[in-house]
Amino acid sequence: MSHPKIAPAEWTVMEVLWKEATLSAAEVIEVLERESDWRPKTIRTLLDRLVRKGVVSREKRAGCYRYSPKVGRAECIRKERQSFLGRFFGGDLAPMVANFLDDRETTPEDIERLRRLLDERARKGDSQ
To answer: Which alpha helices (H) appear in 1-128, and where do they start and end?
Structure first.
Protein backbone atom coordinates (compact mmCIF):
# COMPACT_ATOMS: atom_id res chain seq x y z
CA MET A 1 0.00 0.00 0.00
CA SER A 2 1.34 3.43 -0.90
CA HIS A 3 0.99 6.06 1.76
CA PRO A 4 1.91 9.69 2.27
CA LYS A 5 4.92 10.77 4.27
CA ILE A 6 4.43 10.58 8.01
CA ALA A 7 5.90 13.54 9.91
CA PRO A 8 8.01 12.89 13.03
CA ALA A 9 5.24 13.94 15.45
CA GLU A 10 2.75 11.76 13.57
CA TRP A 11 5.23 8.89 13.76
CA THR A 12 5.11 9.19 17.57
CA VAL A 13 1.32 8.78 17.49
CA MET A 14 1.64 5.85 15.07
CA GLU A 15 4.06 4.11 17.47
CA VAL A 16 1.36 4.21 20.16
CA LEU A 17 -1.24 2.80 17.78
CA TRP A 18 1.09 0.09 16.46
CA LYS A 19 1.77 -1.00 20.01
CA GLU A 20 -1.87 -1.03 21.14
CA ALA A 21 -3.71 -1.64 17.83
CA THR A 22 -6.99 0.16 18.61
CA LEU A 23 -7.42 3.03 21.04
CA SER A 24 -9.76 5.90 21.73
CA ALA A 25 -8.44 9.43 21.42
CA ALA A 26 -8.50 9.67 25.23
CA GLU A 27 -6.33 6.55 25.51
CA VAL A 28 -3.83 7.89 22.97
CA ILE A 29 -3.77 11.19 24.86
CA GLU A 30 -3.19 9.39 28.15
CA VAL A 31 -0.17 7.53 26.76
CA LEU A 32 1.35 10.55 25.03
CA GLU A 33 0.83 12.92 27.97
CA ARG A 34 3.08 10.61 30.01
CA GLU A 35 5.75 10.64 27.28
CA SER A 36 5.60 14.23 26.02
CA ASP A 37 4.49 17.74 26.86
CA TRP A 38 1.83 17.73 24.11
CA ARG A 39 -1.61 19.04 24.88
CA PRO A 40 -4.70 16.91 24.15
CA LYS A 41 -5.70 19.26 21.29
CA THR A 42 -2.32 18.69 19.62
CA ILE A 43 -2.72 14.92 19.88
CA ARG A 44 -6.25 15.06 18.47
CA THR A 45 -4.97 17.20 15.57
CA LEU A 46 -2.26 14.62 14.85
CA LEU A 47 -4.84 11.81 14.92
CA ASP A 48 -7.06 13.77 12.50
CA ARG A 49 -4.11 14.34 10.13
CA LEU A 50 -3.29 10.63 10.15
CA VAL A 51 -6.91 9.80 9.36
CA ARG A 52 -6.93 12.33 6.46
CA LYS A 53 -3.69 10.84 5.15
CA GLY A 54 -5.34 7.41 5.14
CA VAL A 55 -2.85 5.70 7.43
CA VAL A 56 -5.20 5.53 10.43
CA SER A 57 -8.85 4.50 10.50
CA ARG A 58 -11.44 6.07 12.79
CA GLU A 59 -14.56 4.18 13.77
CA LYS A 60 -17.28 5.33 16.15
CA ARG A 61 -18.03 2.66 18.76
CA ALA A 62 -20.10 3.06 21.91
CA GLY A 63 -20.20 6.83 21.51
CA CYS A 64 -16.49 7.44 21.01
CA TYR A 65 -14.05 7.21 18.16
CA ARG A 66 -11.55 4.35 18.09
CA TYR A 67 -8.35 4.73 16.08
CA SER A 68 -6.45 1.91 14.40
CA PRO A 69 -3.41 1.86 12.11
CA LYS A 70 -4.22 1.01 8.50
CA VAL A 71 -0.56 0.46 7.61
CA GLY A 72 1.99 -1.65 9.41
CA ARG A 73 5.12 -0.35 11.07
CA ALA A 74 7.40 -2.52 8.90
CA GLU A 75 5.79 -1.15 5.73
CA CYS A 76 6.24 2.44 6.92
CA ILE A 77 9.87 1.81 7.82
CA ARG A 78 10.45 0.29 4.38
CA LYS A 79 8.90 3.33 2.66
CA GLU A 80 10.93 5.74 4.79
CA ARG A 81 14.12 3.79 4.10
CA GLN A 82 13.49 3.86 0.35
CA SER A 83 12.71 7.57 0.47
CA PHE A 84 15.87 8.34 2.47
CA LEU A 85 18.06 6.27 0.17
CA GLY A 86 16.59 7.94 -2.91
CA ARG A 87 16.75 11.51 -1.61
CA PHE A 88 20.25 11.46 -0.18
CA PHE A 89 22.10 8.78 -2.14
CA GLY A 90 20.29 8.53 -5.47
CA GLY A 91 19.10 5.05 -4.53
CA ASP A 92 22.68 3.75 -4.32
CA LEU A 93 23.21 1.62 -1.22
CA ALA A 94 27.03 1.46 -1.12
CA PRO A 95 27.62 5.22 -0.65
CA MET A 96 24.99 5.28 2.08
CA VAL A 97 26.68 2.48 4.02
CA ALA A 98 30.09 4.13 3.52
CA ASN A 99 28.69 7.43 4.78
CA PHE A 100 27.28 5.81 7.92
CA LEU A 101 30.56 4.01 8.54
CA ASP A 102 32.45 7.30 8.22
CA ASP A 103 30.21 8.93 10.84
CA ARG A 104 30.83 6.53 13.70
CA GLU A 105 33.48 4.38 15.21
CA THR A 106 33.15 0.85 13.88
CA THR A 107 33.98 -2.01 16.22
CA PRO A 108 35.31 -5.37 15.03
CA GLU A 109 31.92 -6.78 16.09
CA ASP A 110 30.14 -4.28 13.83
CA ILE A 111 32.34 -5.26 10.90
CA GLU A 112 31.79 -8.97 11.51
CA ARG A 113 28.04 -8.48 11.74
CA LEU A 114 28.05 -6.52 8.48
CA ARG A 115 30.07 -9.27 6.80
CA ARG A 116 27.58 -11.90 7.95
CA LEU A 117 24.66 -9.81 6.68
CA LEU A 118 26.33 -9.30 3.30
CA ASP A 119 27.30 -12.98 3.03
CA GLU A 120 23.74 -14.00 3.87
CA ARG A 121 22.36 -11.60 1.27
CA ALA A 122 24.81 -12.93 -1.34
CA ARG A 123 23.67 -16.50 -0.63
CA LYS A 124 20.02 -15.52 -0.97
CA GLY A 125 20.80 -13.83 -4.29
CA ASP A 126 22.56 -16.97 -5.54
CA SER A 127 19.52 -19.15 -4.83
CA GLN A 128 17.08 -16.90 -6.72
So the answer is: 8-20, 25-35, 40-53, 73-89, 93-102, 108-126
pLDDT tens track for 20-56? 989 999 999 999 999 999 999 999 999 999 999 999 9
The sign one gets for the Cα dihedral 103, 109, 114, 115 is positive
**Domain count of the fold of the chain:** 2
Q: Output phi, psi for 24, to 5 deg.
A: -80, 165
The domain in which residue 63 lies consists of 1-90
Same domain, 12 and 54: yes
**pTM for this entry:** 0.78
pLDDT in tens, 78-126: 999 998 999 999 999 999 999 988 888 889 999 999 999 999 999 987 6
Helix (H, G, I), strand (E, B) or coil at 125: helix
